[in-house]
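note to self: dont lose this again. the chain is below, predicted strucutre after it. 288 aa total, dont forget to put it in the shared folder this time
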Amino acid sequence: MSEEPRGPRLENRLPAEGINSSTEHPLKEFAWLIVASGVTLLVLMALASWGARWLAPRLPFSAEVALAQRLVDQPVKPEHAARTAELQRVADQVAERMALPVGMAVVVTYSNSAVVNAYATVGGRIQVFKGLLHELHSEEALAALLAHEIAHVKHRHVAASLGRGLAVALLLSVVSADAGAAAAEAALGSAAGFTMLGYSREQEAQADQEALQAVVALHGHAGGLVELFTRLGQADKGPGPKLEALNSHPLTEARLAAVQAQARERGWPTSGALTPLPAAFKKVVKPG
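---
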């Protein structure tokens, strides 16, 4: 007589009722699905924004130049040619001491606006306003100003500070200058957005240090940088609206003190002979 096999017996059973049914209310599940989808979308958008901003300053500088040529560059007015040429001359002298990467150059223009400001934008373009020149009295201070802006260009702070839309435009310009310009115009509405950049404290400190090294290499002392910070600080404390130059480049006594301390640590003089601004700027420099 054979023995029955031991162990579990295999049986065909129907699944329990409700196994594919959720115990949660359908509306609650739908709400969770909406929330999860929204969070996922926000995360993807944040990653796309971060990725574009991370990649933008690592693109070839020629991509910035292409955008600048399409959206920033304007013909120099004949009445501003002499001042623009003097600004470019000083900028070239400073840039020679700053070891710019191969293929990188700066183009400086003059604005007759009374706004107290100067800024660097894409493609190494720098604009200096009459209002800011009105506050400076020496070529050394002008060199310090330009050195600071050139430092932002050198370290790609401009590209790193672009908003998401402009960062994407810069990426597209690598493929097509037309596509990049179209995307930038869509993001900006106008080229003015290229001037509305803000820098981090770390970026400002790096630009200050680079400017200090450049002006000392050029003039043998840091007097121009000290004059620049001192005069802007005095002007900002006076009557009237806050200087636009200090909106994008916040100036604090701590920054001036840091520059002076760095100079002393390296044995660099913080004062020295100052040369009046070139004759081309005599009409814009206020007396005193």
